[in-house]
Amino acid sequence: MAMFDRREWRGTYNTLTMLNHLLVNGPLSVFNEFQHERELIEDAINTEWIDERGFDCGLKVRNVAGKVLRLLEDGMFFKDERERNRKQSIGRIITGFGNSSFVDIQSETNNGRDSSVLSDHQTCENDRAVDDHPFVEDEHNTAKLLLSSST
């Protein structure tokens, strides 16, 4: 945030939004690193960006700058915001691709709702036996090389 151009409000807005995210979710060193930028953030709060049509583009910038400045000045608010955000992100489930991860999410988030769709899906999954897999060799199926060379 070394440069502050009042005509380029979007860049300032994006920078302040990223700083807000880093303060709340990032390492604690961000808090110390941006303490000397308070004056610049105050300038963003006090500046108005009104375009030729009379629209105040700076309202979003002022709102985010106010929150960032409060995070930098009020240590208790800073700690509360970090804790609130951490509590919200604890329940998020990060899964991979495929149907197996879909079933896991559904079973964990069902919470007593109608589970007919879920149980039907699980029934279909359970009906498929390992013996039916094309790579399994048994008395009914003979294993074939899928990528055999045709020489």
UniProtKB/TrEMBL annotation:
Pfam families: ENTH (PF01417). GO terms for biological process: endocytosis. GO terms for cellular component: clathrin vesicle coat; endosome; Golgi apparatus; plasma membrane. One of its GO terms (molecular function) is phospholipid binding. Its main location: cytoplasm. The keyword Transport does not apply. Keywords: Cytoplasmic vesicle, Golgi apparatus. Gene3D superfamilies: 1.25.40.90. The keyword Transport does not apply. Residues 1-82 form the ENTH domain. It is found in: Cytoplasmic vesicle, Clathrin-coated vesicle; Golgi apparatus. PANTHER family: ENTH_VHS FAMILY PROTEIN, EPSIN/ENT-RELATED. This is ENTH domain-containing protein. It comes from Noccaea caerulescens (Alpine penny-cress). The lineage of its organism: Eukaryota, Viridiplantae, Streptophyta, Embryophyta, Tracheophyta.
